């Protein structure tokens, strides 16, 4: 019997191995079936949700069922803990250097466009330069606002991005570098047929203006989705900005819901738009002198009142107060002012603060030492306001500038969070009628609410104006290609159940 012992042990070992293999195979099948069932369940949820009326809550359910993983807040640690993709291997056609112009959000959208252009043309992109010559004279570099390494690594499966032009290029090559602004609102065919051939002669091309250089509409779906990926995933603020921005958000949320009011009643906006309604004669003259001091601002003589009646001016603090009350905001509402220095300083906010005692700014919530490193850097301060605005319960811009549009689009991407987009032309008419006592308060308030029922950041199609790109809806305010897995744009109704 002794010689058979090893054979018996071998049989027992063989049976155990086979049993383990069988058990693990069963487990693998169960996991696969579970994943399949979860995917089917998500599809069923999306299908059933789409059959409901597009009320505010139904919209959020539908969006979240489709975007659960994609729509991760750019301020969420989870969004940054995902592994970086594998580098894409391609033969570069040359180096693209870009200098962004304008404020933070104008530059932000331009960066997204330039990454997209570099990807489409198989170019190597140099980390963008930021505007230092604008009204704000902010000397911040890209790395002072955005996490450079995250930007480079998170996009390495799409485009090769370098921090600087390689030293192997001679001074002569760089001196002969082609500098040019691309044609505004151009589609991918322009870049393919007119820009790409230039790299046969130049190793490096410098786009010295980048604002609005890519079309809003008519672009391939992959191009539009890449613009969103850059904007909502790759452009991560620095750890210092995010830490302080998250602290602001936490301080506000600890005290309840809050509305972010982008009160664009600032010196630069008033000077360059020519809007002086509510200003004294001395203030109007000061704003005019500032406009003339900047030679590249083409329009000098402006009829302020005519422009206001066209809805092309930001609301004054006093007008904003009446509009907020008409919407039904109570004096207990917590309101965060997301803006720079209000023209006329604190005395222009007296009535607004009297009506809304819980009116706050970042300077009121943070210690001076915490803000010291960001002071005199308008873009970094704007980044803090951007974070707070995106995370707010309600966002209300008093002017449709770049920040208003980009924040609106970001909030759509994160689940159609409520953004009240003011119809200033109609509001000015109503405000003037009420001021002349031709419209009672009850009539004024009800008309204001009715006027904005469909202007709260719900799913809608972008307005397309063939041949008039400046008049059509801005891609970054409503990037609907990135929001739903459908080629259709579905209108929506909404309610006033959010923060009041």
TrEMBL record:
Keywords: Carbohydrate metabolism, Fucose metabolism, Glycoprotein, Glycosyltransferase, Membrane, Signal-anchor, Transferase, Transmembrane, Transmembrane helix
Location in the cell: Membrane
Protein origin, superkingdom: Eukaryota
Gene Ontology biological process: fucose metabolic process
Pfam families per the UniProt record, alphabetical: O-FucT
CDD domains for the chain: O-FucT_plant
Similarity annotation: Belongs to the glycosyltransferase GT106 family.
Identification of the protein by name: O-fucosyltransferase family protein
């Amino acid at each position: 019997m002794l010689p058979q012992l090893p054979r018996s042990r071998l049989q027992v070992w063989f049976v155990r191995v086979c049993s383990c293999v069988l058990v693990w195979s069963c487990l693998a099948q169960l996991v696969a079936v579970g994943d399949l069932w979860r995917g089917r369940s998500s599809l069923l949820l999306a299908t059933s949700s789409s059959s409901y009326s597009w009320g505010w809550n139904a919209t959020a359910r539908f969006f979240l069922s489709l975007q659960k993983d994609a729509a991760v807040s750019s301020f969420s640690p989870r969004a940054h803990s995902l592994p970086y993709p594998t580098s894409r291997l391609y033969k570069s056609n040359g180096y693209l250097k870009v200098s962004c112009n304008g404020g933070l959000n104008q530059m932000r959208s331009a960066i997204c466009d330039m990454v997209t252009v570099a990807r489409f043309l198989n170019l190597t992109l140099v980390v963008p330069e930021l505007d230092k010559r604008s009204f704000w004279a902010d000397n911040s570099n890209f790395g002072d606002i955005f996490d450079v390494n995250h930007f480079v690594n998170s996009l390495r499966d799409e485009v090769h991005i370098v921090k600087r032009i390689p030293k192997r290029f001679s001074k002569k090559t760089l001196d002969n570098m082609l500098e040019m602004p691309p044609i505004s609102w151009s589609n991918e065919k322009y870049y393919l047929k007119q820009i790409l051939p230039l790299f046969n002669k130049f190793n490096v091309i410098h786009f010295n203006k980048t604002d609005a250089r890519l079309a809003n509409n008519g672009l391939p779906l992959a191009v539009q989705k890449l613009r969103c990926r850059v904007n909502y995933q790759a452009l991560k603020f620095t750890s210092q900005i995010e830490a302080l921005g998250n602290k602001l958000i936490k301080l506000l949320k600890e005290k309840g819901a809050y509305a972010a009011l982008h009160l664009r009643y600032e010196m630069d906006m008033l000077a360059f738009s020519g809007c002086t309604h509510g200003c004294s004669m001395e203030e109007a003259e000061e704003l005019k002198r500032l406009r003339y001091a900047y030679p590249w601002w083409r329009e000098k003589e402006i009829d302020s009142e005519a422009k206001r009646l066209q809805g092309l001016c930001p609301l004054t603090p006093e007008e904003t107060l009446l509009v907020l009350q008409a919407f039904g905001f109570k004096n207990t509402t917590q309101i965060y002012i997301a803006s720079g220095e209000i023209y006329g300083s604190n005395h222009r906010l007296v009535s607004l603060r009297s009506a809304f005692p819980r009116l706050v700014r970042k300077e009121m919530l943070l210690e001076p030492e915490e803000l010291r490193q960001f002071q005199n850097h308008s873009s970094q301060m704007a980044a803090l306001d951007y974070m707070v605005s995106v995370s707010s319960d309600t966002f209300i811009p008093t002017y449709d500038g770049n920040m208003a549009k980009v924040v609106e689009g970001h909030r759509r991407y994160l689940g159609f969070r409520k953004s009240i987009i003011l119809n200033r032309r109609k509001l000015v008419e109503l405000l003037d009628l009420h001021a002349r006592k031709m419209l009672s308060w009850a009539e004024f308030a009800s008309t204001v609410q009715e006027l904005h029922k469909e202007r709260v950041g719900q799913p809608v199609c972008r307005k397309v104006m063939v041949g008039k790109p400046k008049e059509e809806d801005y891609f970054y305010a409503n990037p609907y290609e990135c929001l739903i897995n459908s080629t259709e744009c579905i209108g929506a109704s909404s309610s006033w159940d959010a923060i009041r």
